[in-house]
Amino acid sequence: MRRTKAAALSLAATTALTLAVTGCDTVKETAGDIVSTATAAVASAAEEKMNEVKDGVNATGDVKAGPTSTDGDRTVAEITATNPKGKTADYTIMVTFRDGDGNFLDSVVLNIDGVEPGKSKTGTARSNRTLSGEPTAEIAQALRH
């Protein structure tokens, strides 16, 4: 699925760039539709990954996203899970990257495993593609299991 998603994003980005260079309004709208479709596919893939978690409990309050930074050509954010329960838990977390206007840019799923009771553990959420501007990371969903 990762290769399919990467190929779709690559094709969408290449097509959007090629079509945008022509300057035609209709072509620009088509390019925008292609990028929107690819972005929706990424979001859908993240949702599917979250749905694979069995016996997960909503734990959005246990998880915090740190500020974003750049690692190579990708946007990253440190994600911290704090386990308030009495036994070790694993976390599956959907992180959404948004632009300064709050528009959706990307979504990734991160696992932080083996968080001991009363302790915190971190992981790094890494965007699927290059994001422009100054994106922020937010916790869209978190499951403790």
TrEMBL record:
Species, as recorded: Streptomyces flavochromogenes
The name this protein goes by in its record: Lipoprotein
Extent of the signal sequence: 1-20
Annotated stretches, region: Disordered: 53-74
Keywords: Signal
Domain of life: Bacteria
